Amino acid sequence: MSSTQLSPEKWIDAGFAALAAQGPQALAAEPLARQLGTTKGSFYWHFKDVPAYHAALLRHWHAQALADVVERLGESGPADARLLAFGHAILNNPNEAALRAWAQSDPIVAASLTEVDAERSTYLNHLLRQFGLRNPAFGHAILATLIGLPHLRAEADTTAAFDALVDTIVALA
Fold first, then answer.
1. Which residues contact 112 (CB under 8 A, 6 or more apart)?
2. Could you read off the pLDDT tens digit of each residue along the chain, which spans 173 residues?
């Protein structure tokens, strides 16, 4: 085993891979160090303890998710294309479902998801207003669809299902 000290970013990336593949129980120093071929010393060089590591993972995801919404608010183009791109980004991110599973047992993760979901819902309603749809329940329904579709992954093409929803929205406009 190497005693190479890895960057915090490498540990964060490894954590997201482990979270998506094995769930939150994989977010511990020893299994991650084994996966990375290094010692736990590298882990503890960057993170005080496992809860601090969990907090760093969550901060990283939270900041990226909010930055994504802000960036998308500044974009232009057809609303349907922007809605599709937004939905596909969420559906194709393996961390989304893994974080939601983690949130079931961790109130801090749940709070972070709630905050990001509120911003995402605001963005969705911004797009939907461009179709003349002003009821905020539409935005909530689309967000709920994006949250739920990954659980059907084995049974359905989630991207095609979301695309059909967007086609329906365009037809309503």
1. 58, 61, 62, 103
2. 555 568 999 999 999 999 999 999 999 999 999 999 998 998 999 999 999 999 999 999 999 999 999 999 999 999 999 999 999 999 999 899 999 999 999 999 999 999 999 999 999 999 999 999 999 999 999 999 999 998 876 656 888 889 999 999 999 88
pTM for the predicted model, two decimal places = 0.90
Q: How far is CA 18 from CA 2, 12, 32, 53, 100, in A?
A: 20, 10, 8, 13, 15
Distance CA 18, CA 26 (A): 6
* CA nearest to 47, candidates 37, 35, 59: 59
| C-alpha atoms less than 13 angstroms from C-alpha of 172 in its C-beta half-sphere | 15
User: Residue 97: CB partners within 8 Å, gap ≥ 6?
Assistant: 20, 150, 151
- The rounded Cα 119 to chain-centroid distance in angstroms is 13
SS3 assignment, position 149: helix
Q: Do residues 169 and 132 lie in contact, with contact meaning Cβ atoms separated by under 8 Å?
A: no
CA nearest to 104, candidates 12, 25, 50:
25
Please state, in angstroms and rounded to a whole number, the distance separating the CA atoms of residues 161 and 107.
30
Burial of 10 (0-12, 13-18, 19+ CB in 10 A): middle
